[in-house]
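pasting Transcriptional regulator for the record, 109 residues
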Amino acid sequence: MQTVTHSDALSRFGCALSDPTRAEILLMLRDGSGYPAEMADKIGVSRQILSNHLACLRGCGLVVTHPEGRRTRYELSDRRIAHALDDLVGLVLDVDPACCPASAEDACC
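structre below
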């Protein structure tokens, strides 16, 4: 098993948050577990797009799955992620809109 450094973990977390859909998924899951079909409907994306983002978040170690018969439930891999998200959304930042524009070329972490 590969050892992940603190900077590796933060980079993966930052990459996950850099995409609006992945950020929305994480924000939804901070309140509790969810099912892909329901999350896709709430976010307004296709199930395939949501599935791709969930695969990325699983690969980053941020979410885990729990099979339930024919359905799969997703949740944050560690409840401390929810606390970190709460802290981040509580920040008030003076943001320059020209800095760090979102790219259509964003790739999964």
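Helices lie at 6-17, 20-29, 36-43, 47-59, 79-89.
The domain at 7-89 is CATH 1.10.10.10 (Arc Repressor Mutant, subunit A).
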